[in-house]
Design goal:
Blueprint lengths: L2 H22 L13 H23 L8 H18 L5 H9 L2 H15 L5 H20 L8 H18 L5 H15 L9 H16 L6 H17 L14 H21 L4 H21 L1 H6 L16 H16 L9 H22 L6 H8 L6 H17 L3 E2 L2 E2 H9 L1
Length: 422
């Protein structure tokens, strides 16, 4: 079968499959475990605050003398080990995956490359791209590959802030978005077109990075999957600037297709080729991450008239049942994954499961007003911290980071952090 038709068939088949799975997922009860009472939450908050304060203190006391840095680094490692030993938020197995598989070094390489590529890029946009890098690193592990930084990973991950944020910008007209989108599509197809502006120059250079690693002739699936996410983004424009009811536009289908193909493309960019079973799982993984994002952004999407399956029902009905469905969809997908053969599969699945559930719980805390009082009080029992602490967590982290000086001992703050945890 021609690769173009194969990828399109996969996308259509998986979109229909996961739409059916979504409808058939139990939405009456959420399969959550590990309740935390008030005092357990306060204890975790104290431990987390103490860890962050101590970690920032070490960064600010980074020694200028190189001979002192070995002892400094050991003390930081001891701090991390002590925190992970007494905290149930991260296990020894999680730490081994996150810190001992090369991820800190990859993070350092990516941040350096991003700063060179665009010195004016906001830290929030680098963070958005970085989250995709980590997903691709997890995919490398699932596929029993060495975790490493590649130009394909850089190119595709940087496309996230460049394309997603551009499409989400309400100040840019839909006509302008369509024009840029059409030209970008031509470049994705391999056409040698000249960039019209600096924005297009950046987009086309990121495609160049991917082409430098993958031959279009040998790995057509890579570029067809990129076209797939591009088409999914174009369809997502239908979600912007208008209200719709559940029977007006197939918002579910659009969300499933866009989310699914985004991680399917991740996987093709990691491995070049995939079995159908691997492709199926990664598509589903993308679906759950997309709906997690939609839940996280529910209030903002409502404000901007950006329709998702979450914002479409928010304010009209409580988000109780749809959140139950997302929790159960997540658990069912991860627990049933049987197509991988890496040695630490159980630990990887546990890390993915834990991470996704934390994303959902933080999203519930953020959107408290969109739930029934009874439901929120029940789910609140499973929060790792108190609601107020969770809602201010990322703001506090950002403030602490912004208060750190740009460099100590001749090294940038980001380099010091990477040196400390690697």
């Amino acid at each position: 079968m021609e690769v173009k038709n194969m990828i399109n068939k996969q996308i259509n088949e998986f979109t229909l499959q996961y739409s059916q799975i979504w409808w058939n997922t139990d939405k009456q009860h959420a399969s959550l475990t590990n309740k935390n009472d008030y005092w357990q939450k306060r204890k975790k908050e104290k431990e987390t605050d103490e860890f962050i304060k101590a970690f920032v203190g070490y960064i600010e006391s980074f020694p200028e003398q190189k001979e002192q840095r070995v002892l400094w680094k050991k003390r930081v490692q001891d701090l991390i080990n002590e925190f992970t030993a007494k905290s149930d938020l991260i296990s020894k197995e999680d730490k081994k995956i996150l810190l001992d598989q090369g991820l800190p070094k990859i993070t350092e390489q990516f941040v350096k490359e991003a700063r060179i590529f665009n010195p004016n890029m906001k830290i929030e946009d680098i963070g958005q791209a970085m989250r995709n890098v980590w997903i691709m690193n997890i995919i490398q592990m699932l596929l029993n590959k060495k975790s490493e930084f590649t130009q394909a990973i850089f190119g595709y991950s940087m496309l996230y802030p460049y394309t997603d944020n551009y499409l989400d910008d309400t100040e840019i007209s839909k006509e302008e978005k369509v024009e840029i989108s059409n030209r970008f599509e031509k470049r994705l197809k391999g056409e040698a077109i000249e960039a019209n502006n600096s924005y297009e120059e950046s987009l086309f250079e990121l495609i160049n990075r991917i082409e430098g690693q993958y031959s279009r002739a040998q790995y057509p699936e890579v570029f067809q999957s990129l076209l797939g996410i591009h088409y999914g983004q174009k369809k997502s424009l239908l979600q912007q600037g208008r209200n719709s009811c559940p029977y007006d536009t197939d918002i579910l289908g659009i969300s499933i297709e866009k989310g699914g193909i985004s991680v399917l493309a991740d996987a093709y960019l990691v491995n070049g080729k995939l079995t159908k079973e691997e492709a199926n799982f990664f598509f589903g993984y993308g679906v759950l991450l997309q709906i997690c994002d939609d839940l996280q952004d529910a209030s903002e999407d409502l404000k901007n008239n950006h329709m998702t399956i979450i914002s479409q029902i928010a304010k009209k009905w409580p988000l109780d049942n749809i959140t139950n469905g997302l929790i159960n969809f997540t658990l069912n997908l991860i627990d049933s994954a049987e197509c991988f053969y890496c040695e630490n599969l159980s630990e990887l699945k546990d890390l993915i499961r834990k991470n996704c559930l934390q994303l959902i719980l933080f999203a519930v805390a953020k959107n408290k007003g969109l739930y029934s009082r009874k439901y929120f009080k029940e789910v609140e029992n499973y929060f790792p911290y108190r609601t107020r602490y969770m809602n201010g967590f990322y703001k506090r982290l950002k403030k602490k980071y912004s208060n750190i000086q740009e460099s100590y001992g001749g090294m940038a703050t980001e380099e010091i952090i990477m040196y400390a945890i690697s």
